[in-house]
Amino acid sequence: MTEVSNEERRGWMGVLARAGAAGIEARLEKAAPLPPHTRLRGPEIGLAMLRGRAGGDGAPFNLGEMTVTRCAVRLEDGRVGHAYLAGRDLRGAELAAVLDAALQDPARRPALMEAVVAPLAAAQAAARAETARKAAATRVRFLTMANMR
Amino acid sequence: MYVAVKGGEAAIANAHSWLAEERRGNPAVPEIGTDQIQEQLTLAVDRVMAEGSCYDPALAALAIKQARGDLIEAIFLLRAYRTTLPRFCATLPLDTGEMLARRRISATYKDLPGGQVLGPTFDYTHRLLDFALAAEGAVPPPAPEADPGEDTNCLRVTAMLAEEGLMAPEEVSEVEPGDVTRTPLSYPAGRALRLQNLARGDEGFLLSMAYSTQRGYGNNHPFVGEIRQGEVTVEIVPPELGFAIEIGDITVTECQMVNQFDGSRTELPQFTRGYGLVFGRTERRAMSMALVDRALRAEELGEEVAAPAQDEEFVLSHSDNVEATGFLEHLKLPHYVDFQSELETVRAMRAAAMHETMREAAE
Predict the structure, then answer these.
(1) Is B56 in Cβ contact with A136 (below 8 Å)?
(2) B203-206: which pairs have CB atoms within 8 A and are 24 or more residues apart?
(3) Which of A118, B92, B192, B204 could form a disulfide linkage to B177, CB 3.0–4.6 angstroms apart?
């Protein structure tokens, strides 16, 4: 089953993990109904140990834990979907897992990408861009008084 | 010694009822929501997550509400909750070089690539009480925005120094780090365990230890090479997938302290670093951690270990405020039997001393 590359899957899984149940549900209203699924594992809440690196680029160390929700589901066509997301969001994890399975189906993928993943990705990119713009407004400009427009 | 006692159930239940009433305060005043704590007391939430060693803003906000704002009590609650959850995995090491920075400053270079980005800081505020905040309903205008240009990803200051050979490189290693939550500390603990311990250590303790190095207890002349604060992506490699996925972003603060190192017979003089990495926006904590990390590297760098902040066992075994609170507060639990035997001992000693005095007087 090489219907989808790991890189593509990684892309939508990252977007869905950040979206949360409310974000995904709002987008699903404009999409075809999700296929029925059975739960293989979870959704369940646990922890991940976050690691950092000494000096930022040295040996790894354990920084502290974070809550994580995960879920695995199977569709009737046998496709298995997984989700891991930061925080506690059982519904969000289950929806993300079902979407991960459905998105692996080339017949469903284009519509789901357009209705769900692409708009969520755009909203997340816009939020990041806004943060970057606010940060840029607090950038100190030394010795550039003469050049100020 | 503490000996278990029975009884007092009704008194305890009534005390807890009163606690719940006191926690709520005057019912004529609207109740505070955990969402309000999460959104408006963000630095308290950050501290509880860092020292509770569990990144979850909503849980930290709940803990703060339940603890009536006692942050050490809230940290205790969060630590207790985390023990009820299974650990799924460890993440890939965070790449702070790829941070979406809200703040990034250096005290060593004025014009550095990426520039000095102040971010939402208390620095340069006048520390005058703002009575406008006491009135409700004011929504501040949105912060100004500017074109970020191409400088959004910033080269590390330590990397700039390393290019010239002026910064001691970090050890290159992928060794699985030890975990203080799984194995009790033994000494020497090593840098990975020290960093974990400091990352969850009490902020006041870290600040005092760091301050002691500045005042001369452990020779240390630090510069803030760089502080950066913002969102970093968290990645894991689930075994069932076999490739890395992003599970979200967390806010962290990183501090690179740059310290002079005189060199040794085998090494030329160069700079060394102390490292701080903490959950949230707790910059004071990141700076303190970096100073204490550098102080604790004294032995490794061939420096004399003379001050408390350089003593690994002293620092690591006293940094945890949940442990410290537990040992301190157990003193208020009933020690009746223990004290009874002390009473008898003191009475016997007094009787013996008085008997001796009377006998001397008689002679």
Answers:
(1) no
(2) B203/B47, B203/B50, B203/B51, B203/B282, B203/B284, B203/B285, B203/B288, B204/B321, B205/B318, B205/B319, B205/B321, B206/B285, B206/B288, B206/B289, B206/B292, B206/B319
(3) B192
